[in-house]
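Most newcomers find our protein records easier to grasp once they have seen one. Sequence and backbone structure share a record, each on its own labelled line. To make this concrete, we reproduce a full record directly below:
***
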Amino acid sequence: MQIRGDKTAREKSRNRFGLLIAAAVTVTFVLACANANAGEYTGVGPLNKIKGPPPLLGGAVKFRVDKSNVETHKDKLTAGLYKQIKEWDRVINVYDTVRDYKPPVEYQEATEKYKGSARINKKGGLENYTAGLPFPDPKTGIEAMYNYEYKYNGDDFSFTDTDFFIYSTTGKSRLLKGGYNRFAYQGRLFLDPKPTLQTSDNVELKEVQWLTYPEDVAGLALLTVRYQDPDKGDDGWMYIPSIRRVRRISVAQRGDSFGGTDLTWDDYRGFSGKVSDYTWKIIDKKELIAQYHAVTWKMRHKNRVPFSEDVRYELRPVIVVEGVNKLKDYVYSKRIIYLDADSWYISAEDLYDRRGTLWKYLEIPWSFDPRNHNMFAYGYCMYDLIGKRSTIISIREKQDGPLQVLNTGLKVDDFSPSVIQTWGR
């Protein structure tokens, strides 16, 4: 049996799907929303039209954590960040905590209206869910993870102009560029059909991700369809520009690494696997030093890590959930997920190999958008703590601010195998 600690296993996992499929899937890691100027929420219209550079939250640094004082703050750090500070000489700046998250009033009303109706079936699927937060007071790990899955993120979502920097052990990097669109079938609040677009095969969501750079993969696009049925795996179609054909692909091996990156299919968004494929349990509720809010939209990075002065940390309330995949030969023995208790987004994650050794550490710096009542990730950092590699995702700032919109009116027909060849053009 191969395990993560063996070099041959690492190489086999990293190369299994090949560069083309890998590059397309990489783009999906952006599920995020644009932080924006403060203002009153007035309905679906402004969610489509607001542009301009979002505000930044600065303030004075309260304290720094580095190698000299890391032991003092160990109980407030994830295992991965603690290891990075000790072994990678990272320095983090901690600011005042600002708890400003509030979802749209429609989402709050739906949460109250349907409170107590959602339930988990024997196979781990979500039943009788309509809209809003499924479990306002989660008692189990799987309830907490369905809160993560159905946190507010719009009826549809579009994000473009994203850069993916893949750093090798030696510090060399390669760059990918692309975009992402998502269409929700459940929990719809603003766009018809509301609250559910019912299909015979009970689709949960569809998403398309595409690449525009480098030239050898520009135009590559991947369509994924996820179903509500816990026994039904995702479907996937890929447009390959080199042969000008759409091909059906298998996404059964969601735990495999790809394209020389430090990510797996299940790692984008923080966690993109099927909730029902795991056994979950809540193991703690605590305060954690985690990235939150932004001091700059131009997060610099070099030699595998961001510049310390470009990242804002706060002491955040989190719910700590452990997830173990039901497949015995899954690439990770467990995931330790740190869910922000206000927004239900993933703040950080520790990932363990099949020997039980800490392998990877994930950080996602979120910032609240008061106009869209949503969260925006201005970066995404996955660190291979054993191989000393990283993959860092950054927005590409435009003249009128980061380009991201919710509730744009995307159509079901936009998410079909015959259309995906147009996304990367």
The two ends are 43 Å apart (CA to CA). The first strand starts at residue 63 and ends at 65.
